[in-house]
Design goal:
- 2 copies of one chain form a homodimer.
- The first copy, chain A, has 376 residues and is of the alpha+beta class.
- Chain A has 2 domains: 143 residues, Creatine Amidinohydrolase, Chain A, domain 1 (3-Layer(aba) Sandwich), CATH 3.40.350; 220 residues, Creatinase/methionine aminopeptidase superfamily (Creatine Amidinohydrolase).
- Chain A has 9 helices and 19 strands.
- Chain A has a 6-stranded mixed sheet, with helices on both faces. A 3-stranded antiparallel sheet of chain A has the order 7-10-11.
- In chain A, helix 3 packs parallel to helix 4, helix 6 packs across helix 7 and helix 8 runs antiparallel to helix 9.
- The radius of gyration of chain A is 23 Å and the shape is elongated.
- In chain A, 51% of the residues are buried.
- About 5% of the residues of chain A have low confidence.
- The interface between A and B is large, with 56 and 56 residues.
- Chains A, B: This is Aminopeptidase P family protein.
- Chains A, B: GO terms for molecular function: aminopeptidase activity.
- Chains A, B: It holds the Pfam family Creatinase_N.
- Chains A, B: Keywords: Aminopeptidase, Hydrolase, Protease.
């Protein structure tokens, strides 16, 4: 694996050099992980003119705020960046890294302005006043867009783990249990099956909460007649996935429930079928949206119908009406239209898929839980 | 409660006016919550020259990344800031808020430079080019330092919930179970007893992992002879607490375990006893540290022996050798020295306490689980 990381760093170094920066400082945690693999929490990467360095604080945030890094696979190699741990409690790794870059003779340093706060950026500038600071922009995020086989196979496993946890939950009795407890049970099952943890806070939303964007579990109990929407994902070696389904509780769904479900299902299928290399992000969003507009739910639809996924649960690209850019092969995205009717509930159906050319069979579905409307 | 929030906003407004800014933009989530109570995830607060506004994106991050806000208590009041929800997927609330401040005639706007990224700060400046941007600094964090009775009673409940969950776990069989499973069980028990969730990722560390700073649960199983260190906290209405204890697994601890435990226990007690209004942060750290230095564990000690706690698990003040400032009454802090011996394990003992004057009985301990060395 360490060759993989070294190759990623080499690509970034080439891009920085082309943009006129001899040194770059990567601080966004998912970007550091992409370029180095296992790193201590809060570590940053300096791609320097003379040497590469990982810089970490002696004490990670206590208690820990970021997921654990996997142990490095294979033996350490010469091309791995050396790890420098700052003594004491007060050192900021980005400030120390800028100082080191200046000491190594760098004249300019590209930093991640979308990650650094204004205060950290200023402290960094003050520590190395002769360094010209440039913006690395979303350069590493761009490299992360297209996933390699190793990354996709981690995501495939993450998808299986989430499907498994959800499938088991559906076999148990749901009526009378709270959203919170169902969410905790899903988290436990994810870990039981080998996930490093949930990919994001698990969503369980019953009755009027169902389908609500950004809902977090409450003490609402599942009742007969409810819509129940569940959205979960697994983290497997840092890679994530997302599966969301909506069910009806009780022997048979009401007419309005069937109608709403069918509309969201049709929209989600249209979005999935639109995934192909070269297709504009906004086109995928548009075809999803059109189905729901035609069914009269346009006003209740959310502004984003899907997003990229990988080391972060919500990464580039975004599938929205104003998104710029086109899908590539081997880009994993979610397709997740949702409609929420205030006071009544709603429906969300989320899948994670990998964009593949038609010749390879079209988009690869990572989350295979049935999308039939189940009455539980 | 809404009078409380209005009074907090009035204090901030006075401080801003004194510093020459007629308007302030608060973006750090815990600060927004402190000033407004219940807010949608990602919402920011504009304290404007004409009106106060909360500005939120139409779609919160999907899936949700921040804890749910509690429902507002009491009826809405005239002094509550109006909520403005930005349509579409691409609006940044801080940019919209700056634009509104300029429209309302503000000439300067104080922003939280320790929260805003360089990129957001620039976008905000571009949206309102005539606005002079100033730094609000950690003004709201300073207001948050001293807690009122309502805040402390939430933290007291959070402490009880964590003690309860930990106490129940200790009654079960631990040998053979993995760190991950024990952590999940603690999380479930916290929620069972009424917590809104864990206050931070629960730490369970067995054997050589015990006492390691920043450890997150692994598949390591608990074995006879292990040190087992556990650190957890509850989130109750947004307020947090932290309790950490270390146990020995098996009928009787080894001599080195007793010796290490006694040293950390003595250090932690010294730190707790040093908590009083007017005492310098670094003094509390020093008395803790001195005990472990004298016992020969100085090198293995972490650079931070405690920190503030409230709406965030790790907030001001920090108890470190270089910290500046003095404790006040009604400031909750942790005292949590830890020593980790590589390859062998270690000991952490963490409590959350509220600083109180001697006349009121001295520091109030919120986490009352026994600190005797239990052999389980």
């Amino acid at each position: 694996m360490s060759e993989v990381y070294a190759a990623r760093r080499a690509r970034l170094r080439d891009q920085c050099a082309a943009a006129g920066s001899a040194a770059a400082l990567v601080s966004r945690p998912a970007n550091v992980r992409y370029l180095c693999g296992a790193v201590p929490p809060g570590a940053v990467l300096l791609l320097g003119p003379v040497q590469d360095l990982m810089v970490a604080a002696e004490v990670p945030a206590t208690p820990p705020l970021s997921p654990p890094a996997p142990p490095p696979s294979g033996s350490p190699r010469a091309e791995e960046p050396r790890l420098l741990v700052l003594p004491g409690a007060d050192g900021d790794p980005v400030v120390a890294a800028a100082d080191l870059a200046a000491t190594d003779g760098a004249e300019s340093l590209a930093v991640e302005e979308h990650d650094l706060t204004v205060a950290r950026h200023r402290a960094l500038g003050a520590a190395a006043p002769r360094l010209r600071l440039a913006d690395l922009g979303r350069c590493v995020e761009q490299l992360r867009l297209v996933k390699d086989d190793e990354e996709i196979s981690c995501m495939r496993i993450a998808g299986e783990l989430a499907d498994q946890a959800l499938g088991e939950l559906l076999e148990s009795i749901l009526v009378g249990r709270t959203e919170r407890h169902l969410a905790l049970e899903l988290d436990r099952r994810l870990v039981d099956h080998g996930a490093d943890g949930p990919a994001f806070p698990t969503v369980v939303a019953a009755g009027p909460n169902a389908g609500r964007p950004g809902h977090l579990p409450t003490d609402r109990r599942v009742e007969e007649g409810d819509f129940l929407s569940i959205c979960l994902g697994a983290d497997y070696r840092g890679y994530r996935c997302q599966v969301g389904r909506t069910f009806v509780i009780g022997p048979s769904p009401a007419d309005w429930q069937v109608e709403l479900y069918d509309a969201v299902f049709a929209a989600q299928r249209a979005g999935r079928e639109a995934l192909s290399p070269g297709r504009a992000y906004r086109d995928v969003d548009r075809v999803t949206r059109q189905v729901l507009n035609a069914a009269g739910y346009g006003d209740a639809l959310e502004p984003c119908t899907g997003h990229g996924v990988g080391l972060e649960i919500d990464e580039d690209p975004r599938l929205t009406p104003s998104a710029m850019g086109k899908l590539d092969a081997c880009v994993p995205v979610t397709v997740e239209p949702g409609v929420h009717l205030p006071g009544r509930g709603g429906v969300r159906i989320d899948d994670t898929l990998v964009v593949r050319p038609e010749a390879d069979g079209g988009p690869e579905l990572l989350t295979i839980t049935t999308k039939e409307l189940l009455a539980l």
